[in-house]
Amino acid sequence: MGCFTFVKLMMVLFNLLIFLGGLTLLAMGIWVSVDGSSFLKLLGPFAGQSMQFVNVGFFCIAIGVILVLLGLLGCCGAHKESKCLLLTFFSIILIIFIAEVAAAVVALAYSSFAEGILRAWATPALQRDYGSDPVVTKIWNTTMNELKCCGFTNYTDFVGSKFEKENAGSLPPSCCWTNSTQCSQDEAERSAVQGCFEHILETLKEHANIVGGIAAGIGVLEIAAMVVSMYLYCHLDNRVS
């Protein structure tokens, strides 16, 4: 009976954390929806394109609501010792866990495909909007100066662009190591400044252990939640007797 009470308490505390996490996401989602212009500044050079595919605010609200309901479900199931609620909680966590595993497999399998999609719209955007659209130009200049990179792939993203034609064949200063205003195509080729995508990819690889550790930690928590809920479910009959 002591073990059952301890597990029940852990179940309540665990779901309380889920509930608070859901409230945090919900608040952030509402903030993004109300003041989206401020949030767009955090998304870097791909802000406009990203918002065309995913409304970040509504996504955060949806996930936040799910976590809040899930936390309430787990707490009520443990507190009221309801087999129905515990089984429902277990089923939802199991579905989420399977979906995350499937998403990870798909992400690994289609990472190169996703890179092709990003390249397909990033390069035309640089060709068309850089130098003419002040927002896009400022964001890309900030990104290239901070990361010491040039374009999405490399300097070739600007070859034949509107910016090059309007500046007598000059490329952005970040594409040359001299960082001069007159950065010719030949000088950019000799400088061989790395593209921003490759730079970001290398940074992600350097932090892959951290990302993997976080993902593994989330998986362990989900498995623990399923084990605890199933333990309570299976021992409720003994508790009643």
TrEMBL record:
Alphabetical list of Pfam families matching this protein: Tetraspanin
Listed transmembrane segments: 12-33, 53-73, 85-110, 210-234
Keywords, in A-Z order: Glycoprotein, Lysosome, Membrane, Transmembrane, Transmembrane helix
InterPro entries per record: Tetraspanin/Peripherin, Tetraspanin_animals, Tetraspanin_CS, Tetraspanin_EC2_sf
Entry membrane topology: Multi-pass membrane protein
Subcellular location per the Swiss-Prot or TrEMBL entry: Lysosome membrane; Membrane
GO cellular component: lysosomal membrane; plasma membrane
Similarity annotation: Belongs to the tetraspanin (TM4SF) family.
Name of the protein in question: Tetraspanin
Naturally occurring in which organism (per UniProt): Seriola lalandi dorsalis
